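Action item from last week, closing it out:
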Amino acid sequence: MIKIIISFLLMTMITGCVQTPSEKDKPEEPPVVEQPEKPVELEKLEETKYVKKIDETKEYVYIDEIKDKAFSDDYKKLADYDYPFTDFDKNDLLQWMAIFYMPDPKDEHLILNIDSEAAKSLNEYFSELYDEPTSLFCEWKWIITDDILTIIKKSGDFIPFSTGVVYYMAFHIDLHTGELLTNDDLVQLFNVEESTIQGKIDKYGNDNLYYKEPENTSERIEGTQGMMVLNRNQKYNTIGYEYSEYSLLVPDENNLYFILGVYDFNFNGRILFHKVALK
């Protein structure tokens, strides 16, 4: 966060026993100078604090258009079933990520309202996704902190009451420069030692998810938040368990999180997502 420090000149008046001057000796009253409502230098600082918007009347990011992709009544029937877990809260990031069988699949055209070359390139990519879709659905969710805009893309395909696949992608934009941030940039901004990240993911698994080393991977343990199986030093039934430059990271004002996906123990296709704090 950019901090603006403003110094004020404080004028004090020391009183004491003084002789009142005569009308003749009194100094002339200084002219009254009207002060601007806001110091000019402060206005300039506020104008340059954040990257410029293309349209000042709109937010930094918004959905411009939506296409309904429910091509048959079979999609609508999903609303009557918990298949799987279509009643998840779409306003919660982790639950929204877990939903991919839906009665109302749609394509959303996302617009970045940021005046930068990086945003321009991303807008071209987002428009291409919308105009020439390669998936049944493409939805977005975003998080805005004081410094960073994070956009999560969820896209994929499914056949009602059958199979499906989902892809996730994150875009992080510096709200001061308008530039695209990498995972390495985020790790540095939050003062996270990259060498410690995998250990924190492992500890989260040990503390919050059920582990064991079965002789046969068909053995499973039921867990309330999902489950993982550890066998021959490999993590099974997880999504992106090993940290890399392609890992899904999400920031808030105070911390950076690694998003870990774990298949539900029932193996019904549901994936539960977890936030692993990296600080």
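Closing note: Residues 19 and 25 are 11 Å apart (CA to CA).
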